[in-house]
Amino acid sequence: MNAFLSAIMLCLPGAPFLLLFLRRGFIRRASMFPRAFLIFVSAIAGYLSLVVLMALLLPNFLPWLIVFLAPPAFYLFYWRARSCFGTARGLPPGSLQLAPSAPWHDYLFYLKQAERFGPIFKMNNLIQPMICLQGIRRGNDFLKQHEKSTVTPPMPFNRHVPMGFVRYMAPDLHLEYRRRIKLIFSDRNFLDRAADLMGQSAQTHMATSGVNPVPALEDMTFATLADLFLGLSTNDPEFGRLRQLYREIDYRRSFLLTRSGTERRLEEIERIFLATVDTRSSYFREFLRRSKNDQQDRVLDRTLVRNFIYLLQTSCIDVSDLLLWILKYLCEDPRWMKNLQTHLSAAERSGFRHAQDLAHRVVLETLRLEQSEYLMRKALHDLHFEGFLIPKGWLVRIGVRESHRDRAIYEDPHVFNPDRFIANFQGTGQYSPFGFQQKSCVGKSLTLVMAERFVLALAREYRCMVVKDGPRELGAFHWRPSAKLRVQFLPYSASVPKG
């Protein structure tokens, strides 16, 4: 009996880590880092197995093990978890509790922590210490002061890009790539093409959509972006294979992939990219055409191609998730869809302009509430900001969501209300869904055009209603509507001009 109780006491430190496995958001995020996840699981399983074996084979040693582990356990699980820990040496308030569970199931966790401890607080990101900064202005100030003293922690797919994915590149190379990519993504001809493609794709895919909207949204987004990035349409023979390859290299499911398997698929996608570059109008071809240094592009061939491969994938994931949130909000509050349809049905040309304006506001408001959550950096050495110490190696989380839901800035901040952007458009210090400083999203214009055209296409063709739903869930990157979400699409009978 004593051995059993001792074993229970020794297993208690593992409880916070075991509870994380009950959080699907944690599993989704951790599965993108298979090596770290395997080490994490192995460490927990190894420790618990050791305790069980000792309880069975060496029960008399368990009390001594408790005495040996008690001081570090007390330090890690109690002393460091106090909100005042480290404040004497300049750390901000906040708990360094190991493996906190709340961030994985409470989407307002960081806002609540800021209300409790102030706009700068500390916590653990699993076991890694992190400083959290609330507010876009504060985040901007931090990056202006410490941009060169921090790095963006890379995603695992970055290892497949020889000189790094664009947002993780060395500063000089990053600025050059970013400048050229942003110019192409903002090209008016491509934006007009994106609007037309999205409208056509929305009509095609939503017409065949079942009550689960996710597959249709992902397919329509991929079809639009594949045409823009490579010049491939859904009628091309290579399209089906390209779509399948992108499903297989999806880094949200990287736990199921081997590095060699991913490389084989990337090489096949490379061949499709290179086969279209001389014959199809595309982002990829335009990037090469505008290059000033052809020799440099030849040297960076694989870096260049791999960047475009993953730009297509990251864009597809982000845009389709945004469209899902837009659909959910329009279904939950049908007055906005009715207003859109009223404007589109108007005989006057101004009606279409009003519909465009409202679609734009719908997208802006959705971005305020969802998708735009945080920026992450890692300190390269000890930093000081607003009187607080940020130790070397600690993460710095800049909360964008918290500013977008700040009651001092927005009335009823948790309510979906596109009309708040009619006359009260906030500056970049208060509204910044696409990031800020030199790492802001290069696809801002493209995202807005695609999302706005989706809203208009949806309003022209359908009346939508939610028939099943559940609480929001933490996906691999962002909070998403429930996987249980089901939407019924009914034809909109009113005559709506195509505009």
What does this structure look like?
With 499 residues, the protein is of the alpha+beta class. It has a 5-stranded mixed beta sheet, with helices on both faces. It has a two-stranded antiparallel sheet with strand order 5-6. Strands 8-11 form a two-stranded antiparallel ribbon. It has helices at residues 2-11, 15-20, 24-30, 34-57, 62-79, 109-117, 136-146, 171-185, 188-207, 214-230, 237-248, 259-276, 283-290, 294-299, 301-332, 335-345, 349-369, 401-404, 444-461, and strands spanning 120-125, 128-134, 150-151, 374-379, 383-385, 388-390, 395-399, 462-468, 473-474, 479-480, 486-491. The termini are far apart.
The termini sit apart by 79 Å
Rg is 25 Å
Tally of DSSP β-strands: 11
Largest sheet data: 5 strands, mixed
Q: What sort of overall outline do the alpha carbons produce when their principal axes are compared?
A: globular
Determine the structural class based on helices, strands and strand pairing.
alpha+beta
Tally of domains: 2
CATH superfamily of the largest domain: Cytochrome P450
In the CATH classification, which architecture of the largest domain applies? Orthogonal Bundle
The average pLDDT value, as a whole number, equals 88
The secondary-structure element order is HHHHHHEEHEHHHHHHHHHHEEEEHHEEEE
Largest sheet, spatial ordering of strands = 1-2-7-4-3
- Amount of beta strand: 5-15%
Would you give the CATH topology of the largest domain? Cytochrome p450
* Percent of residues in helices: 40-55%
What is the count of DSSP helices, taking H or I runs of 4+ residues?
19
CATH class of the largest domain: Mainly Alpha
Low-confidence stretches: 295-300, 495-499
The oligomeric status of these chains comes to single chain
